[in-house]
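User: Could you go from structure to sequence for me? I need the amino acid at each position, not a summary. Structure tokens:
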């Protein structure tokens, strides 16, 4: 079995508050469109936070799902299915036609899973502890592996179906492990990414009471990565899927190749349940691992990094330190931005969404901005692409994610 195969990105699908397809998502990013707004989907008068990045103008039937399926599934699975449908159509892969079903795998994770389903069914149980009103679909709807399982069923993917759960690093790890599966010969293609739907009352209450959320009353000036005025992240929903494929397999069938995936790093802070390691050594090592595998050469590479950039006091400073440790003096030369300033923090989906942005930035030669960066934190003193997109001939792109529990992941892509 060949152990050092190349990996291409041949399909992208996105569901987000700034677009329910890849092109709309990308146009929103480069034009600095903020999708964060007031929540109108449920009452918020008693909640401490009333804003979020809600998926709107979304009709699941437009993405190959029928009404019976939609009725039975939690939104996180529906979002995942919609982004997978887009990505598979984009890639042109079809199990049994141009790829063996046994060689098509699914690595789709979720930070929490069927959160809305869990809240709804627990409310029923509290009202009637006999449990007779609990849905028979409760467990298979709420477990976090169900998005991947349903995607595998839909697209006849009979290879490994693995649900990674590493909080906010979930879908970056999913992409990285999918990359390794192809590189080391265990699959020819992987449907990889993540999905989450956490912007519900109990989700807001939990994260708000953990002092993690922005309390801004202005939704358009709430997600403020690397800004001295930042006060926490903004919750958001959605999904992103990338189709990773063995490079030769993609070339043979004439697929469009967005970029080549060339590196992956994974470490653990081993420090605190929610706070990042303040000296940033483990985060930097994660980035270094991805750079080393990607063959980073400071004399030849023009680099873009899509930052984790949550807009929390601790993360943004630690992340800046991590870039300085990982890149050394070259850190002053890299282009960096946090697209969370526009689409918010999408939890288990955020890594894949940001990887998609990184791949598109490489293809288009445009760095998406960090919007609202009007008062940079003096401790965050690198080039965070304030307020407006810039053109740049980048050839190496990284996307990193740091999750609760100390989970760190970084993926690297090269321009084709």
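Assistant: Here is the amino acid at each position, in order:
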């Amino acid at each position: 079995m060949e152990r050092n195969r190349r990996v291409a990105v041949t399909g992208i699908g996105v569901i987000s508050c700034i677009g329910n397809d890849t092109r709309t998502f990308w146009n929103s990013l480069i034009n600095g469109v903020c999708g964060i707004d007031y929540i109108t989907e449920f009452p918020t008068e008693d909640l401490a936070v009333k804003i979020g990045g809600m998926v709107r103008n979304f009709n699941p039937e437009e993405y190959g799902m029928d009404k019976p399926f939609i009725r039975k599934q939690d939104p996180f699975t529906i979002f995942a299915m919609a982004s997978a449908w887009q990505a598979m159509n984009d890639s042109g892969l079809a199990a049994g036609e141009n790829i063996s079903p046994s060689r098509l795998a699914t690595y789709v994770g979720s930070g929490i899973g069927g959160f809305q389903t869990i809240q709804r069914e627990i409310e029923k149980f509290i009202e009637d502890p006999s449990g007779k009103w609990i849905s028979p679909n409760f467990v298979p709807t709420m477990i976090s592996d169900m998005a991947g399982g349903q995607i595998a069923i839909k697209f006849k993917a009979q290879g490994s179906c693995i649900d990674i759960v590493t909080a906010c690093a979930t879908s970056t790890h999913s992409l990285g492990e999918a990359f390794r599966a192809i590189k080391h010969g265990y699959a020819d293609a992987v449907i990889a990414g993540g999905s989450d739907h956490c912007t519900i009352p109990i989700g807001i209450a939990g994260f708000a009471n953990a002092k993690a959320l922005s309390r801004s009353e202005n939704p358009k000036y709430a997600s403020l990565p690397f800004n001295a005025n930042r006060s926490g992240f903004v919750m958001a929903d959605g999904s992103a899927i990338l189709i990773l494929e063995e490079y030769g397999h993609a070339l043979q069938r004439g697929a469009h190749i967005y970029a080549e995936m060339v590196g992956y790093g994974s470490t653990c802070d081993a420090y605190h349940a929610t706070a990042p390691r303040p000296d940033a050594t483990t985060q930097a090592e994660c980035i270094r691992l991805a750079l080393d595998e990607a063959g980073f050469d400071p004399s030849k590479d023009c680099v873009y990094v899509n930052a984790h950039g949550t807009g929390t006091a601790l993360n943004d400073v630690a992340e800046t330190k991590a870039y300085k440790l990982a890149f050394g003096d070259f850190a002053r030369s890299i282009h960096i931005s946090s697209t969370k300033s526009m689409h918010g923090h999408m939890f288990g989906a955020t890594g894949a969404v940001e990887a998609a942005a990184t791949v598109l930035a490489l293809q288009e030669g445009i760095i998406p901005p960090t919007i609202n960066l009007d008062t940079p934190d003096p401790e965050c003193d690198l080039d965070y692409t304030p307020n407006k997109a810039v053109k740049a001939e980048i050839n190496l792109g990284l996307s990193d994610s740091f999750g609760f529990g100390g989970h760190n992941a970084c993926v690297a892509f090269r321009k084709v």
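One structural detail worth keeping in mind: Residues 70 and 372 are 37 Å apart (CA to CA).
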